[in-house]
Amino acid sequence: MTHPREEVRARLQTDRPHSARVWNYLLGGKDNYPVDSEAGEVILKTFPEFAAVARLQRRFLARAVRFLAGEVGVRQFLDIGTGLPTADNTHELAQRIAPESRIVYVDNDPLVLVHARALLTSSTGGACAYVDADVRDPERILAEAATTLDLSRPVALTMLGIMGQISDAERPADLVSTLMSALPSGSYLALSDGTNTNEALNTAVGVYNGQSANTYHLRSPQEIASFFAGLDLVEPGVVSTAAWRPDADRAEEDTADVSVCGVAVKK
């Protein structure tokens, strides 16, 4: 019988870079292993703007959650592909506006879950929960999320940088559709992902895929926009990450437009 600690060590795969840990390195975090920082440096050597792209995506999360919790009054969030905790996590952003907000984080990296349980604590009156599951298993995610969220009331589903980890053969659009189909009218989808429109980024991701435990699949902006099928897009639609409702008092970094994002509502 495998000891639980040995099972976790095997899942960590510290001999190969993992996306959440590489992303953490690119955002300036310390929760990564040498193999992850080495992979991050290879990416930056090929595509030096990648760290700026990571920061832009994080800022999109902040603007999207402020919109969802503030302007449209969503009080429940299902964050799939959580990544390692950093500043302004989903529950902090939402509960800053509405302390009663309830958030379920989903990831399948054991290091993410360890840090999440230690660092992502809810405000009084709200709730945070953590689901150890893969986005490829939406039924399990929904079943476990239902112990914290009321799925008869609107939920904001956030999927930032996660669909690129799903190959075309795994039918990513169907995964999004299954998740959104289980949520009621008035629910929202906030999604962003990397595009295949920049040759340097394509090369960097190809190098990363050659050594990583999980590959990343860049797609065209049109393919990423198709994940919102059947939903009503919020203005300005599917646009570059920096162009989605930018903060008037904060200039975005000048970097290549290599990711797109959008927010849409289920009528």
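^ that was protein a. below is b, sequence first then the tokens
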Amino acid sequence: MKLFQYKTGIVAVAAALALTACGTMSNVSKDGTASNLVWPNVDGVKFDNDQGTFPVLGALAQVRDGVTRDQLYYLLGRPHFAEGFRVKEWDYLFHFNTPGQGVNNISTCQYKVLFDNNLIARNFYWKPVTEGSVCPDGKQNESYTLSADALFAFDRSDLNNVTAGRTELSNLATHLKSRQNLTSVTVVGHTDRLGSEAYNQKLSQDRAQTIVNYLAAQGVPANLLQARGAGKSQPVVQCEGSGAQLIQCLAPNRRVEINIQ
């Protein structure tokens, strides 16, 4: 009897979740389209401390028709709303640094992804949330990754000894100054996992700020530039071993990302 009651309870909970999801979601066709979009209430965010996230613009720029759920999860993380099981749409709440626009220079936008019957992402939609918010359309974003090893000497955050990376930085500054309708440039510093979290956080922030200072000195509007340190929290490779071999293997993690809107 207890087992039967337990199984009945599971079915009841699953049914309740399904009914809840159906009432707050769009009617998505088999090819991943919907005539009328249903947007969840922003107060219903369930993850990331009920606040949504600041996405990595370089990752966002890689989202396109044909990506799988696993690929989308890797690029943007889990959807921010509890929408049920095997649903055909995911919803996110994103924030962007947009100097002079949005609320306190922050734009807040909802982002919806629709999937076809094979759960392949097919269509993508934006909706501004706060007054004056500017949402990206995916076509105007650019992302560049520069090797920290080419930009900085070991354990340093100044550009005094830059050799290989100087030309890349100069070319980047020239490109940014030529861009029309530039709204923001976010420079994100990354380190490898060697060393403490506090040490790597400071090093990554200092390196990002150094790049921001350089770009501003080259004529890129300073009010559009943002520096952020990610420390060792976002590795692109995982390595084992020790010594020089490990340091070399971890090189891709030591980088600076420039995300442009």
